[in-house]
Amino acid sequence: MTAAQESPVSVDAWAELYTCSARDVQRRTLLELARSDERIFCVDSDTGGFEDGFAAELPGQYVNVGIAEANLFGMSAGLAASGLIPFAHTMSTFATTRACEQLKLDVAGNNLPVRIVATHGGLSAGHYGPSHHALQDLAILRTMPHLTVLVPADAGETALAVRAAAHHPGPVYIRLGRNATPQIHREPYAFRIGASVQLADGDDLTVVATGPLPVHYALGAREQLAAQGIGARVVNMHTVKPLDQPALLRAAQETAGIVTVEDHVVVGGLGGAVSEVVSAEHPCRVRRVGVADRYLDTVGSEQELLADAGVTVDHIVAEALTLLDPARTDNHHTRRR
């Protein structure tokens, strides 16, 4: 049975149900799963939002450890070792920096089926300032043994990802944003961990993106390129680990190169992962659109901070054009120095 078939959502109800934020959908989906499986536990770190729903309905499957992320992972690892399926909730930056040791040793190192749901990924908590930026998390997570890393592109895909993760062997990390973002998927589909989704055809170049706004921007860039007669293939890489290598190698073989887009630093994230794959198997040109190696010390919305960092539709288009015209590459990077 596919993940789409497991979901009770019809095509007609899809748009209405998934116009809210991904974290709201995750809470709702988790409660639906836990009602029919008493092994599923909600382990909270005082994130808010579970008290009136999950905790009120299933108090025996709910634990709030408070703002103590190391304890969150240690307790979740213990629950998983006892045969339960804990979903551990915190913010992305706290999961991967404050509690990195417990994530590495207790969860990933022991290959335990803990499902970490980390909200406020990337710059989605930009209004809180740099203490809440999560721009290094994917780089850290990619080094963890056994760990599967999911970055849904919208609320609907979040529901599918949570259902797929619930009974996936080994630990899973689900990276979500904070606020509602544009709908990418308009109907259910057969979500598969490790299998990317091609959102648009194109033979000239490929744009590979992960996360809500990067995927949205990639589709916007495709429209601008299409107006210039350029066909851009757009791939939603919702699984950062393991990567969909066959899709990447097809892009490397069939198009002039790949532009990666992410709400993350360009070091060690999606762009680095894609470069590792193609350089080993079928070398091609890769342009990485992400946050440069700098410290963002400003406060603003996710869109404002991404624009300040250069993660925009126009920048994706500019990088895409360098793949098609070598002369543009020299001029483009000369201007940016």
**Measured on Cα atoms, how large is the radius of gyration?**
20 Å
Annotation field: number of helices: 15
Mean pLDDT: 90
The CATH C-level name of the largest domain is: Alpha Beta
The structural class is alpha/beta
Q: Biggest β-sheet: count, sense, barrel?
A: 7 strands, mixed
Strand order of the largest sheet: 2-1-3-4-6-5-10
Q: What is the name of the CATH superfamily of the largest domain? A: Thiamin diphosphate (ThDP)-binding fold, Pyr/PP domains
* Structural shape: globular
Number of strands: 12
The tally of domains stands at: 2
Helix content: 40-55%
Gross CATH architecture of the largest domain: 3-Layer(aba) Sandwich
Distance between the termini: 52 Å
Order of helices and strands: HHHEHEHEHHEHEHEEEHEEHEHEHHH
- Report the sheet-strand fraction: 15-25%
At the fold tier of CATH, the topology name of the largest domain is Rossmann fold
Low-pLDDT regions: 1-6, 332-337
Explain what you see.
The chain has 2 domains: 21-175, 3-Layer(aba) Sandwich (Rossmann fold), CATH 3.40.50; 197-336, Rossmann fold, CATH 3.40.50.920. The strands form 2 sheets. The chain has a 7-stranded mixed beta sheet with strand order 2-1-3-4-6-5-10, with helices on both faces. The chain has a 5-stranded mixed beta sheet with strand order 7-9-8-11-12, with helices on both faces. Helices cover 44% and strands 18% of the residues. 50% of the residues are buried. Helix 10 (212-227) packs across helix 14. The radius of gyration is 20 Å and the shape is globular. It has 337 residues and is α/β, with parallel strands linked by helices.
